[in-house]
Amino acid sequence: MRFVNDRLRPMTGFAASRGRAQALRGHAAMLGFSAAVSGSFSLGAMVANDISPVALTAVRFLLASLVLALLVSIVPGGGRDGQRGFTRADWRAPWRYGLMAALYTGYFVLMFEGLKTARPVSAGAVFTLTPLMTAAVAWPFLGQRLRPVVGTALGVGAVGALWVIFRGDTAALVGFEVGQGEGIYFLGCILHAVYAPMLRRLNRGESALVTASMITGAGFFVLLAYGWRDLLATDWGALPALVWVTLAYLVVFATAFSATALQFAAQRLPVSKVMAYTYATPCWIILWELALGHGGPGLLVLPGVALIVVALLILLRAD
């Protein structure tokens, strides 16, 4: 018996070490996700009134799906079971991709609609409410219950988000005076909160790249059916250069990379922790705004940003 126990102990330690390594990879993926997504707020606000949100998102998803499909074909392990390319099994139950695409495209359309009037930092704060909503959805969908420390972190982050959204104005908070743009984007965040658990619930062994490619491809057809008039009405040749720069960024970083990172992390971390990395978004947006010469937020919102950072640190320490 002693011999057996000695043999089992290293295996248990190896399994624990491997589990920690996978978790760290998930955390790294979500850190990259938050950095990539944040740029879309600042750039999106700059072009939101130059192009229809439906037209922008449709072209974005079409190009992203092609980029992702190429990666599936050439990247080792891009497909199922560590192979390259798509398999017949990836096409089973295609309704899954349509359902997730409807949620994902709805989120982005409402995001850019909201950015027509909402400030980037304020919109980023709205995004930080998503983890709390995601945790509420994850319980019935995945059976994942919040540990006290995670619940505490989500609560602290929500308070910080509300502080930023209302710009430190307690009178506006009490009266719940939400800007129109923030209200529109909040509806989109509800869709995103449902989308994250769906990724895990509906996955049937597809790789992160395959899932992201399928969803963005299906998303294009969803938007084509819904907003084909916007696509035809857009004068593509007359669009400002910044729109094309923004579109390129959205395709490569905010769609192809972020969708893959989110799917990768969702298979390695509890979904509440996956979405917890949205708490880093306002901090990244502030850096983006400073880099673009738009200035930083007012001093009144900084306590809220600090609370958001504290929430993220609590979650990181919990691991």
Automatic annotation (TrEMBL):
Mode of membrane association: Multi-pass membrane protein
The keyword Cell membrane is assigned to this record: yes
Domain EamA: 26-165, 185-316
Alphabetized UniProt keyword annotations: Cell membrane, Membrane, Transmembrane, Transmembrane helix
TM region(s), chain numbering: 28-48, 54-76, 97-115, 121-142, 149-166, 178-196, 208-229, 241-262, 274-292, 298-316
Main subcellular location of this protein, as a coarse class: membrane
Subcellular location: Cell membrane
Domain of life where this protein originates: Bacteria
Protein name: DMT family transporter
Lineage, uppermost ranks: Bacteria, Pseudomonadati, Pseudomonadota, Alphaproteobacteria, Rhodobacterales
